[in-house]
Structure formats: structure tokens, C-alpha cells
Amino acid sequence: ETGVTQTPRHLVMGMTNKKSLKCEQHLGHNAMYWYKQSAKKPLELMFVYNFKEQTENNSVPSRFSPECPNSSHLFLHLHTLQPEDSALYLCASSQVGGYYEQYFGPGTRLTVT
Amino acid sequence: EDKVVQSPLSLVVHEGDTVTLNCSYEVTNFRSLLWYKQEKKAPTFLFMLTSSGIEKKSGRLSSILDKKELFSILNITATQTGDSAVYLCAVEAREGQGGSEKLVFGKGTKLTVNP
């Protein structure tokens, strides 16, 4: 088990539901990331938080809403998703200053029906 | 548009073989190139390369970067079944002068090592 945990590990939701993914890191890092990995595309960086401040939003649709209340916790709030949003959502953390040596969580497998 | 291309997309070898995985890239304001190994779900970090011609080694794995030709290779010698995984290449770049950093991933190379 890594120092980055994600819950839930699996999630099935309808297109009208609202759900949240949670990520917690126990490594004393101050940067956290959300990634999306779908079968048809390379791993995509979605959001970056440095010291709780969002520094990147890589053209992610507004139906994905991140929240970082502190350096150890990161949420991804989901609402009115589409079936093409079904994917593995990975959280990662590192020290601020680059993407060097990110530690990844196990991921949440999301299925949108 | 920034892109990272890995080849081959998949590779099947026997234990003991040596493999070379390729990663080529086209990005603006290159900063570094990273290699990850992904088994099951979470990628694990292998190497970060910033300078041309300097080989990084970790056990049976090694990697080198060519910033002139814009590519990197990852070598695995004496492969073992535990090396079976998807190997991801990612390039860290900066968007313009003073722009934000971004990370662009390739699609990965799926390596299968048979006993």
C-alpha cells in the first residue's frame, strides 16, 4: 500500500448523480494532482494543487470540480457526468517544484451509466 | 501541439531477454522527461532525465535522453516476469515564457515477459 489513499476504489453512478472522489496523502507533500486514465487515451493530467492553491486546470469540463481543503486532502466532485467520463481516476502527490517523484494512489475505477 | 510518442505499443519477450523501449517527444520549453512503471493501477516513478547523454541506472533498468534528437530510451536487461507492466513516458514542459508547467504522457508500452 502506498502513502496515498483513494476512496472509493470503485464507483458506479448514473448521469444525474452527484458523487465525490477522495484522496489523502500521508507523506508530508504539498502538491497534489488528479489524473484520468481511460482505455483509449494516454494518462491525462486534470488538476494540480500547490500549497492548496489550484495552479493548473487542463481544460477539464466543469462537471468535474476539484477541492483541496488542506495539503493532505484532495477531492474531485462529480456531477452530471457522461458515459465517456468512465475511466480510472488517479490521485498523486509530491513536493512542490515539479512533477519529480510523484507518488500515486491506487485509483478509483469510475463507471458512468 | 505537444506530443509524446512511445514505441512499440506492446512487446512480448522471454525471461532473460534485453528490451529497449522508445519515447520521442515534441514539446515547447522542455524541462524534463520521466519514466514510470504501471502495474495494475498506480504508476511508480523510475527515472527523471534532464540532461542529454547522461545515463541513469537502477539495477537492471537504465535510461538515457537525447535532447538533440528529442527522444529517450529505457533499457531493461535480463528481464524477469516481474518486469511485466506498462511503461509510461512523460515530458514536463512549460507553456511559454513564465507559463504554467504541464505534463504530457505517451500511451505507454505494454511489456509482457514470459517465463
Q: What's the arrangement of secondary structure elements?
A:
The complex is a heterodimer of chains A (113) and B (115).
Chain A: E1 4-7, E2 10-13, E3 18-25, E4 31-37, E5 44-50, E6 53-57, E7 64-70, E8 73-79, E9 87-94, E10 103-104, E11 108-112
Chain B: E1 3-7, E2 10-14, E3 19-26, E4 30-38, E5 43-49, E6 56-58, E7 61-66, E8 71-76, E9 85-94, E10 101-105, E11 109-114
Parallel strand pairs in B: 2-11
Antiparallel strand pairs in B: 1-3, 3-8, 4-5, 4-9, 6-7, 7-8, 9-10, 9-11
Kindly describe this structure:
The complex is a heterodimer of chains A (113) and B (115). Chain A starts with a strand and ends with a strand. In chain A, strand 7 (64-70) and strand 8 form a beta hairpin. The model of chain A has no long low-confidence stretch (mean pLDDT 88). Chain A is 0% helix and 57% strand. The radius of gyration of chain A is 13 Å and the shape is globular. Chain A has strands spanning 4-7, 10-13, 18-25, 31-37, 44-50, 53-57, 64-70, 73-79, 87-94, 103-104, 108-112. Chain B is mainly beta and 115 residues long. Helix content of chain B is 0%, strand content 61%. Chain B has strands spanning 3-7, 10-14, 19-26, 30-38, 43-49, 56-58, 61-66, 71-76, 85-94, 101-105, 109-114. In chain B, the strands form two sheets. In chain B, strands 2, 4, 5, 9, 10 and 11 form a six-stranded mixed β-sheet that branches. In chain B, strands 1-3-8-7-6 form a five-stranded antiparallel β-sheet, with no helix packed on it. Classes of the chains: A mainly beta (113), B mainly beta (115). At the A-B interface, strand 5 and strand 10 of A face strand 4, strand 5, strand 9 and strand 10 of B.
